[in-house]
Each structure stands twice: as structure tokens, then as C-alpha cells.
Design brief:
The protein is of the alpha+beta class. It is built from seven helices and six strands; from the N terminus they run E-H-H-H-H-H-E-E-E-E-E-H-H. A hairpin with an 8-residue loop joins strand 3 and strand 4. The longest helix is centred in the N-terminal third of the chain and has 15 residues. The radius of gyration is 16 Å and the shape is globular.
Length: 202
């Protein structure tokens, strides 16, 4: 399977290593997780996969867990151990950037089986040394019907888009969470409110 065409929002790769209010990889909570994972898996590839599994498996998706809390800073996601796909993606990006691995935020639009109720889903793209391009990863968290895995070859995402249902793989690799995503997260007092205000397109 050919790796799909992905487009950097910013041509400067350094932009995909930067810390920010959301991707706050200079925060002590983030740094503590980085130190632990890096001591166990010092190489870039092993670390990227270990950080993937850490976010996918030890930070429950708040909808799966029935957790009403909304997080959006990487440090909050890791400290409070909860978040939806957007938040978990921000946390994974922060763990990667903290180790000098370029990480981008990217998105899909998904829908029900009849094309109704579209919603934006968050992913992370990673650029590892020696690889031929960015590779998208999905840290949403597995459950019955969802079986995503870290992969630098064929994508192993939670969902494959179905164009016939107006689903979309957005090609842009963002340095920061898309404004529509971040605005929804920051404005939501709890997850039930967030569920009513999730962006439906970018």
C-alpha cells in the first residue's frame, strides 16, 4: 500500500519540534514520562513506539471510560490520564517532540454508515530518521472493532476513510492543533458538552 501524500503546513521541520501551550513538552509532567520511556527504550524507533503504546494504552479514551473531564494540554492528558482522540494526539506529539522526533497533528473526517453525523478524528504523524516520509499513527485507544497499532509501513489506524460516505483524509500536517479542534476543547466544561460541539469539518 502506497503511503498517502501528506503536506507540511510549515516547510520548516523545526516547527514540528516546538513546544506550545497545548504541546507543552517542556512541562515537568511530560518530561518525567519522557525520561522513563527513554531509559527503557533509548533509540528513536523504539522510543516512538513505546510512547505510542503509552498514550494508546495507559491514557483511557474518555468516552470509553465514561470520564466527563476534558483535557487539551499534553501535561494535563498525561497527569489526569484522560482525553479524547484530539487530546491523546497532542500528548503523543509532545512525547515525540521532547525527544527530538518531529511530530505533526493531522485529521480525518469520519461518519456513520449512511454518511450522517460527520465528526473530525485526530491523528499524529511521525517523521523518524531514515524513513521515506511521515507516517500517521492513531493513539485513540483500542476497543471492540478498533485495532490500531504503531506502524511505519502500512497504516494501522482505527478507521480507514470511506469516500462514498463523504469521509476524508485531510492531507495537511499541522504544527499545532487545528483551531476548530482546540477551540472546541477549550470551550467545553465537560465531555457531554464537547460531544455536542465537536467540529464536523476542517
Amino acid at each position: 500500500m502506497e503511503r498517502r501524500e501528506l503536506v507540511q503546513q510549515n516547510p520548516d521541520i523545526a516547527a514540528y519540534l516546538a513546544a506550545s501551550e497545548a504541546v507543552d513538552h517542556d512541562h515537568p509532567v511530560v518530561r518525567a514520562v519522557v525520561r522513563r520511556l527513554a531509559s527503557e527504550c533509548p533509540g528513536a524507533y523504539a522510543y516512538a513506539e513505546a510512547a505510542y503504546r503509552y498514550v494508546r494504552d495507559t491514557v483511557p479514551h474518555s468516552a470509553d471510560a465514561g470520564d466527563p473531564r476534558v483535557t487539551w494540554r499534553a501535561s494535563d492528558v498525561l497527569e489526569r490520564r484522560t482525553g479524547i482522540c484530539y487530546a491523546k494526539s497532542i500528548a503523543y506529539a509532545a512525547l515525540l517532540r521532547a525527544r527530538g522526533v518531529p511530530a505533526a497533528l493531522c485529521y480525518q473526517r469520519l461518519a456513520d454508515d449512511d454518511g450522517s453525523n460527520p465528526v473530525i478524528h485526530g491523528l499524529v504523524a511521525v517523521l523518524l530518521p531514515g524513513e521515506r516520509g511521515w507516517a500517521r499513527q492513531d493513539v485513540r485507544g483500542n476497543k471492540p472493532g478498533v485495532d490500531a497499532h504503531f506502524s511505519l509501513g502500512e497504516e494501522r489506524l482505527a478507521w480507514t476513510v470511506r469516500p462514498e460516505f463523504n469521509e476524508v483524509d485531510y492531507p495537511v500536517l499541522y504544527t499545532e492543533p487545528h483551531p476548530a479542534v482546540l477551540d472546541a476543547l477549550r470551550a467545553a466544561p465537560d465531555r457531554p458538552y464537547l460531544w455536542r460541539t465537536l467540529p464536523t469539518e476542517l
